[in-house]
């Protein structure tokens, strides 16, 4: 039990209620001395349990708890650091014993009932308008005495026009609700009477008056000179939320324009991220400012249901226990409806709506597609985590709208790239990529990339149904569509492709002005593949150590021929003489000797030269002097390399993985995402080490290719920023919010099924399957056959 240390005070924690106790020892030393002097215990030995009750402090000593006042709940009152006990009745032997709590409540209710009855029964015609009477409110005076002195002049306030919020009609009559407190009135209350209005026409009167200047305890005068019979309502203006800025308690009692807001010590009491609505409380009163961030910019969290339920134990309006809580979901949206013991009903949404669609569902679908993920994997992830996720049909319905946003972004990017290339002689690289290896591909994506800038210029997705179900014709058709849809202002001088026969024939026939070149890497890869296959036999094993040298020699010939086909061929053929230890000759026209330094006798002895006439030498000679290969060299004079295009195809696997089926629209949209990703990542600098022993040097990574079996260094570039994806998310929210209808890109007419035979009824197919399985079982097991025969 806690006792008050003040002389003559009988308050203790067991018998008295509504009293707070403050430890003397918790104060500063100088404050402790002042406290002991005021309570007349100068030589009192202070212990850890020595306390003074709240009855000995004036109202100005307490820290105002706005949250408790607004919610009408009771909390322990806090006092200021410099507060001193000054309220005592030292002349009496002891303070009078307090009445019991229910007795005080009964008397207060009776007094309020009497006051309301007097107000309602008063004759409106006899109400006189006060023009000059001003009540001077002194915080130090007793409110009961103050009201008694002015009871003769019944000053009432009817139809009061305010400046904070304007109303269409006159307010009902209001008068000060008189409550008695020690020292001064801390939080005035009001009683409403007379005319009843619709709830949606104006805010709750009592809440409004609590937020107005003339409700606060102030030394300023309260003017009641408004004439209720001649007051003209002003024009309605939009209602705004109150500011959540903090104001010190000392300035509250002096500022007549003060508007109560939530307690800044508990800024998380009102939810600003979630959506909260109530049928019993006005949502415009004393709320914090709503979050001004866009839905895609707002931070999201994974919240466990058990933790979330703790927030809904109590009513958001009155603080009482909720007796009925109903939860429902719509995709990733959680909606909680609660009803408290006093009948207050409220609804809370875990996310905002964007034109009747939960923002979370829209953003999840957009992020899933823009990141290159598949719905099946994300659904499995959500199921393993027991995470609420949007359904299959919802995702694909949203995805259809997202395709138009991606198409809009790619169209702008393609036009920007084309405009930057106007007026230049272009060297383009082209190559096709099928969605599956072999001759069973359904889609082929043909891409054109500018070798000068490294950016993708155009691409085309071909469905096998567009080429009479022949997958070998898709690459040629893809190149044709790419060249057809390019801007006519572009001047294509060189086009480098692989050695596709149909592509070469089409370029010679339909595009004779374009110089067609082969990709050096594709030709080199084919050459090394032939040599490796031949070197696997035992008699050709001496050829194996020379494969890497032959590859290097091929690249050297192509890059140093300077566009001279004769010089290129002579340099290439010279590899036969070099491998047999012959480094000078006179048979050629332009190239007569090896350009490497003269070998020493030790170097010659260490080399495993190929003997002329041996099996390995004969294989090398046949491959090098092959007529078809020498003809291929004619399209390698410009040393065109499509390495950037191969890197792009590798990155496409992130958005369009092989062995995974997509619709035609999905394939086009995902390819557009890959193209945007590539173009936004072009031009990145090589990363530099910021710490460690190699600080300030370029970063490299070591890789071990299986084909060469040699460790090589690959540069590491700076990370991508993916700003274009953030723009896509912002555009997604903008389009949905404004209801913008974007143009849908035109798709070619493709067959629904690529099968060459029409699909029979499902029952017929299942019947054949069962009969076939039964027949196989009977053939394999004689015992089973006898059983069926019986």
UniProtKB/TrEMBL annotation:
The keyword Metal-binding applies. One of its GO terms (molecular function) is DNA binding. Pfam families: THAP. Residues 1-88 form the THAP-type domain. It comes from the Eukaryota. Residues 219-238, 243-264 are annotated as: Disordered. Keywords: DNA-binding, Metal-binding, Zinc, Zinc-finger. PROSITE patterns: ZF_THAP. This is THAP-type domain-containing protein. It comes from Patella caerulea.
């Amino acid at each position: 039990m806690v006792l008050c240390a003040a002389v003559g005070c009988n308050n203790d924690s067991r018998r008295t209620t509504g009293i707070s106790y403050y430890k003397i020892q918790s104060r500063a030393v100088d404050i402790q001395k002042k406290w002991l002097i005021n309570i007349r215990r100068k030589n009192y030995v202070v212990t850890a349990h020595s306390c003074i009750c709240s009855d000995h402090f004036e109202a100005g000593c307490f820290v105002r708890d706005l949250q408790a006042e607004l919610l009408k709940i009771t909390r322990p009152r806090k006092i200021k650091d410099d507060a001193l006990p000054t309220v005592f009745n030292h002349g009496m032997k002891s303070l009078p014993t307090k009445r019991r709590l229910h007795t005080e409540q009964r008397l207060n209710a009776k007094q309020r009932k009497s006051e309301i009855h007097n107000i309602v029964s008063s004759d409106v015609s006899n109400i006189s308008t006060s023009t000059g009477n001003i009540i001077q409110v002194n915080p130090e005076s007793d409110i009961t005495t103050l009201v008694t002195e002015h009871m003769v002049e019944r000053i009432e306030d009817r139809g009061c026009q305010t400046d904070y919020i304007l109303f269409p009609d006159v307010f009902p009559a209001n008068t000060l609700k008189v409550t008695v407190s020690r020292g001064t009135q801390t939080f005035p209350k009001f009683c409403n009477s007379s005319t009843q209005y619709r709830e949606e026409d104006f805010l709750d009167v009592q809440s409004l008056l609590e937020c107005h200047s003339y409700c606060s305890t102030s030394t300023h005068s309260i003017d009641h000179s408004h004439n209720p019979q001649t007051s003209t309502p002003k024009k309605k203006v939009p209602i705004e939320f109150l500011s959540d800025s903090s104001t010190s308690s000392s300035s509250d009692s002096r500022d007549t324009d003060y508007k109560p807001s939530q307690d800044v010590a508990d800024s998380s009491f009102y939810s600003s991220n979630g959506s909260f609505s109530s049928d019993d409380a006005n949502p415009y009163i004393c709320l914090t400012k709503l979050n001004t961030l866009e839905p895609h910019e707002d931070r999201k969290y994974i919240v466990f249901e058990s933790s979330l339920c703790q927030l809904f134990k109590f009513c958001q309006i009155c603080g009482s226990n909720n007796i009925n809580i109903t939860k429902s979901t719509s995709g990733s949206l959680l909606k909680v409806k609660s009803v408290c013991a006093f009948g207050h009903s409220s609804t809370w949404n875990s996310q905002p709506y964007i034109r009747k669609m939960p923002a979370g569902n829209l953003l999840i679908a957009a992020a899933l597609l823009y990141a290159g993920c598949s719905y099946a994997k994300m659904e499995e992830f959500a199921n393993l985590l027991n995470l609420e996720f949007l359904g299959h049909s919802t995702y694909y319905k949203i995805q259809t709208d997202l395709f138009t946003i991606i198409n809009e972004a790619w169209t702008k990017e393609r036009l920007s790239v084309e405009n930057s290339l106007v007026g230049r002689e272009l060297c383009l690289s082209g190559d096709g990529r099928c969605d599956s290896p072999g001759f069973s591909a359904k889609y082929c994506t043909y891409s054109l990339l500018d070798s000068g800038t490294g950016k993708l210029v155009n691409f085309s997705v071909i469905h096998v149904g567009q080429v009479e179900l022949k997958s070998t014709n898709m690459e040629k058709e893809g190149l044709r569509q790419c060249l057809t849809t390019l801007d006519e202002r572009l001047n294509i001088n060189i086009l480098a492709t692989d050695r596709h026969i149909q592509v070469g024939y089409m370029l010679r026939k339909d595009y004779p002005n374009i110089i067609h070149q082969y990709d050096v890497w594709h030709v080199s890869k084919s050459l090394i593949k032939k040599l490796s296959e031949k070197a696997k036999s035992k008699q050709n094993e001496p050829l194996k150590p020379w494969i890497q040298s032959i590859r290097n020699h091929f690249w050297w010939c192509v890059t140093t021929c300077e566009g001279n086909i004769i010089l290129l061929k002579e340099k290439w053929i010279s590899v036969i003489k070099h491998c047999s230890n012959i480094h000078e000759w006179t048979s050629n026209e332009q190239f007569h000797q090896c350009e490497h330094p003269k070998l020493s006798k030790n170097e010659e002895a260490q080399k495993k030269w190929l003997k002329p006439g041996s099996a390995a030498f004969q294989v090398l000679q046949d491959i090098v002097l092959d007529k078809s290969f020498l003809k291929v060299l004619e399209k390698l004079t410009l040393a065109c390399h499509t390495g950037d295009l191969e890197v792009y195809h590798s990155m496409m696997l992130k958005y369009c993985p092989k062995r995974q089926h997509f619709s035609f629209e999905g394939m086009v949209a995902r390819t557009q995402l890959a193209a945007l990703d590539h173009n936004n990542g072009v031009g990145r600098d090589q990363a530099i080490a910021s710490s460690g022993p190699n600080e300030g040097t370029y970063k490299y990574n070591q890789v071990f290719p299986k084909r060469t079996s040699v460790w090589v260094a690959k540069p590491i570039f700076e990370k991508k920023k993916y700003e274009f994806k953030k723009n896509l998310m912002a555009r997604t929210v903008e389009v949905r919010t404004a209801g913008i209808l974007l143009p849908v890109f035109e798709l070619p007419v493709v067959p629904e099924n690529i099968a060459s035979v029409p699909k029979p009824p499902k029952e017929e197919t299942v019947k054949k399957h069962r009969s076939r399985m039964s027949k196989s079982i009977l053939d394999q097991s004689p015992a089973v056959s006898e059983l069926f025969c019986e």
